[in-house]
Write a structure and sequence with these properties.
285 residues; 4-stranded antiparallel beta sheet; alpha+beta
């Protein structure tokens, strides 16, 4: 009987998380904290925009309290909405922002690199972003973007890694987004982390003779990467261009070397506005 009760509680918790995630989507809901007392259940809802949870005059939070009582059987819930102190250090908020940008047509490479930089600037010890699915081409693949120190397994990972998973539904297909954020390195690992950094520096100093050979290889690799980035940015520009209004698109096209044919194709695939199509066809003739 005790086991069944635990299973029932966990099922209710999953259903509650799914409900809050859908209901508080505009508020960028992050997570929930429960504290049970003898007379009530104290609930704290963390989100990027707590004002949207409360609503005008507390109208929306009152509706939420009634829902928690009647549908989820929570006794005397006392609900409070709190703002996430640093959204770029909250894995759930970052995952929602990344998936939202991808759904709007953002290029995975740009999205991944942007949020890796933002998380590190917010003060994280390390971050890893994985985006998997159809990222270009017919086959699915996984793109990983990481910086800093991220522990992937063991007790340290369970206690110190903030993990979140979201699904982004795009035109080519669904993309999986995994976020791992290590906010700080635990005290018992800091000494070990410093030692490894020092040994790496010593090895670099000893291997100065092979640096010239490595530099030539790196130069070739960077040149190839730059070519790939240029090809990707040209595609990104056309996709992003058609997301703007017609007057902005006309201004940008006049001041840059844009392939009218590619813009026309992108427009047909996305918005298919007759006014812009006629203008583009006129420019090409």
């Amino acid at each position: 009987m005790i086991e069944k009760e635990f299973v029932k509680q966990n099922i209710n918790k999953v259903k509650l998380e799914e409900y809050l995630d859908k209901e508080l989507e505009r508020a960028n809901y992050s997570h929930i904290d429960f504290t049970k007392t003898s007379t009530s259940t104290n609930i704290i809802l963390y989100s990027e925009k707590p004002g949207l949870i409360i609503g005008r005059g507390g109208h929306r939070i009152k509706e939420l309290i009634e829902k928690l009582k009647n549908d989820f059987g929570i006794e005397n819930p006392q609900v409070e909405a709190k703002e996430v102190e640093e959204p770029d250090l909250d894995a759930e908020v970052v995952a929602k922002n990344v998936s939202g940008w991808l759904e709007k047509g953002g290029h995975p490479k740009r999205v991944g690199n942007t949020y890796v930089r933002r998380v590190m600037e917010a003060g994280a010890a390390g971050v890893q972003i994985e985006i998997s699915g159809k990222l270009g081409g017919s086959r699915g693949r996984t793109a990983k973007f990481s910086r800093g120190y991220v522990k992937m397994c063991g007790e340290t990972a369970n206690k110190n890694i903030d993990y979140a998973y979201r699904k982004a539904v795009t035109k080519p297909g669904a993309l999986g987004v995994k976020i791992r954020i290590m906010k700080e390195i635990p005290p018992y690992m800091q000494r070990q982390h410093i030692d490894t950094e020092e040994t790496e520096e010593e090895i670099v100093e000893e291997d100065t003779e092979t640096e010239e050979q490595e530099e030539t290889v790196e130069e070739e690799e960077t040149q190839e990467e730059e070519k790939e980035e240029q090809e990707e940015t040209s595609e990104i520009d056309h996709e992003e261009l058609v997301g703007k209004n017609i007057s902005e698109i006309k201004d940008e096209i006049k001041n840059s070397d844009v392939d009218y044919q590619k813009v026309l194709e992108a427009e047909k695939n996305n918005k298919d506005r007759k006014t812009l199509k006629k203008w583009l066809e006129k420019q090409m003739s």
